[in-house]
Amino acid sequence: PDHPTTTYTRHGGFLHNADTFDAPFFNISPREALAMDPQQRLLLETSWHLLENAHIDPTTLKGTPTGVYTGVSSQDYLSRLPQVPEGFEGYATTGGLSSVVSGRVAYTYGFEGPAVTLDTACSASLVAMHMAGQALRQGECTLALAGGVTVFSTPTAFVEFSRQRGLAPDGRCKPFAAAADGTSFSEGVGLVLLERLSDARRNGHQILAVIRGSAVNQDGASNGLTAPSEVAQERVIRQALAQARLAPDQVDAVEAHGTGTTLGDPIEAQALIAAYGRERPADRPLLLGSIKSNIGHTHAAAGVASVIKMVLALRHGLLPATINIDEPSPHIDWDTGGLRLLTETVDWPETGRPRRAGVSSFGISGTNAHLILEQAPVPEPQEEQAGAPGPETVRLSGRPAAQSAGAGSEAGVLPWVLSAHSPRALRGQAEALARRIAVEPGWSAAEVGWSLVATRARLDHRAVVVGGDRSELAEGLRALAAGEGHPAVVCRDATAATGGWRVFLFGGQGSQCVGMGAGLYERFPVFAAAFDEVCGLLDPHLEHPLREVVLHGRPEPGLLDHTTYTQAGLFALQVGLVRLLDACGVRPDAVIGHSVGEVAAAYTAGVFSLADACRLVAARATLLGRLPSGGAMTAIEATAEELAADLARYGGEVAVAALNTPTSTVVSGPAEPVSRIGAAWRERGRRIKELTVSHAFHSPLMEPALADFAEAIGGLAYHRPRTVLISNVTGEPAGEEIAGADYWVQHIRRPVRFHPAVAQAAPRTGVFVELGADAVLLPAVQHTLDALAGDRASEEPRRPLLVPTLSRTRPEAEELAHALARLHTVSPVDWRPWFTADPAPHTVDLPGYAFQRERYWLPDAVPDPAPEAVGGAEARFWSAVEEEDLPALAATLRIGEEDGRRPSLGALLPVLSGWYRERREQSAVDSWRYRIGWQPLAEPGGSGAGDWLLVEPAEGAGDWPAACERALSAAGGRVRRLVVAQDAERLELTAVLRASADEDAAPEGVLSLLPLDERRYAPGSAVSTGLTATLTLLQALVDAGLDAPLWCATRGAVAVGEEAAPPSSVQAQVWGLGRVAALEHPLTWGGLLDLPESPGELAPERLLAALPRLVTDAAPTSRHSHPGRRRGHRRPHRA
Fold it and tell me: Per residue in 79-90, pLDDT tens?
């Protein structure tokens, strides 16, 4: 202790991973993460786990009045550095400020309640809980995160307490023991989530314990700044009891501050005796313990550690032992004081009332806190069954609880939905869950599935494990953790397009089968309700009940294949699917129907109400069903143009009924000519398929029904589509024309232009979803997409997902689960409606998020060697000059009073003193002066391999796109080019970027040439089109979630070398934008490049020297002879 900068103990409780952090998860750049105090990083990760442990999706609290109260007392991370390292300027402020400890948590999660960081040293986290409780009572917040954190980045605390001889040499804290010889310092972080009791009950949150009362006070003018005050401690306890409206004997135990010091422990014990012990029955002493014997003194986190311990003790009915006790301290009155030290674990005494415990925490500065905890109330029956919080929970079950799948049942096929910030973390999530369920045999598959859906965030990388029982789901989970394929695991299709429209496809006749929808009808009440509603509207127009015909094939076999019941049944099924998908949050951006399927599409798009849609279906189905049977339909491998001559020979008897694919056309009409046309094309080597139909639909044979049909639907109410509907009749998006009876009359007679409709939607589509009894339309869609890809052979083909909702190859619920799972990997699906049990399954304590931590720790900086010590005589000389002390200066120079040089020295001294002061001031000013310069980059600087997205303007880029493409391709990378129009909208560009992303071959970066467009954005505007387009691109990249840094290339936007000003002030605007973008979107922004004078001067190695530095280098230039990066350099003033 007597040796400076040393400590006599080598022991403490340290967090071995305090230097690690999952920065990308919180959208924090590596540079900022390095500058952040590790205590901020620990709180961010711990707060996420806290909310997960409370069964709350952290993302749902954005914009809510949630408060953050954190205690912190040590912030020495950046104090290790004599100055802010180069490149970290600006980050050090937020990285080291104590206010940001709580503020960053609130900012990251979007909390809008109070965010308070406080420092009362050892009592900080308990004071934070006290303040949070007050804020909740006063309505300043509805939820509050409260606690504290301590990380010792330097040994200063150990050195200081060694000087005070306050540390236990063996690193063991011995509270209230005879052998107590000091405390033991530890690191730690702890948080609790607080809510008003009434709110917690209403929201269905699990209540772990109740804060019955709390108080905070100060020692005041006691017997020493750091010495504890018995009087103040007794007073704060009595204040807490009064606030809790409790008598001392109504508290069973106290978790003491108990640091293990010979001074503090006896004082604290005496205060406890005075406040609690003297008024207690002799057979019920106050049970005393301290967690510091187990984990040491965690400083600002000590109070919350004590609270967590006592909450667990309350819940389990056990009081843990205080260890490291040889015997109770002889300086404490154990016999008559009403205290008992817990030297062994004991059962919590039964008293006939709720268990209660006090918790004390005292700060070295004199701030004391005491809190009284009470056992959680017994939940009401409805509380026990509560699932995820919030009234927004969608409940689809209309059955009585006794008929629903119970909380513990397997309930048929189920999804286990996982998500993470990265593919690696997703595997980590699966691994953690697999380990947990292996040791939790009592958890049912439904409980695990519901907990994943109701209490976990939906992050960017998603996977779904689908199975019928726990063992099947667990097997799929292990495969996902190992990165292996498995039939039960649905991951994102890396070959499919991302973003774009979700298009619903509604099939026509041909897919029907008895029992279609029966599995969904039994499993999902929302489907059953919709199906029954349609049947109720159609049955008055039918001879037999539609539900019996469709679901059970009654009363006559084969009745469903009659066109009347086929059309009605398909419509009922499709409406049920629309309603079920809508309940799961799956809604279309566009719809396409095939023949009668366009009626369901039009209903979905809002063209008419369900009642009017049913009237139209009933009229169409019955009138066409009454037509004489006969006629034929044949699909021929030929285009409509190729078939035109054959059709003309029959004088209009045979017509084109459907254009299903670019090479498949259906002809319809009387049987004999249709058969002849088919035979002729078979002889030419073309494939034909005779369709099984009752009538020759979309042919002249339909015309006898048209007048009656027009009359039947004339009085319906029609509306313009609210959702894009691509018409069967035109193959184009429908407008006003569809909102009238004439359109639907033509619809019966005109050919189905399905292939043109798909081609119209394909460029904007990310997924086609077929709603029907089987995947009938998707093969035709695939053929059309293949043809479109062939037409764009020079471009990389986009591949929308093709998803059937039902298939005859497996049970309906299982097929729908896989369909929703595939959709979920592209865009999140609401899975809560899948769990139809009422009440919902019990939520279980899933493992917390599997953070993917990496090391972020600024190296300890060794100060520059100090200059040689100025000798004593030289120091005295300059001191005398500065102070204009002539006698001292003369003595230093050995000039006596009678020396003739002394008067001259006196005359010179003011001038010399002024010069010296000016030089010192100028030196200080020089240390503040910087200039922007260019630091050369080594060549080639990196491989540059990988995919790049090259974004170029429609005008103004000249030959630069081709030059950049050649340079980027030189290292073997693949370059995809995207041309952006001047008037490109943010939403449109976002959709295009999502669609172009490829997960397995994600671009390493995005190089934008948009700044080269120097045209004015608008007449009279000083802003360039290149600037506005760059802003739009940046916003679209952020919206699209494209995980690739954006680099923007300019030409002549910065001054290099001896240039006084940048050659292009217009393009210089983009460099201003870049400075802001780098701060606001550090993970999306890569940097800026200034290109050479002409494309011919762009050497690949120069470009590659700059681009790979995606994080550490901010603004390279490849202009002039060598590439360089922009940096600040000291620039002393020159007179």
Answer: 877 777 777 777
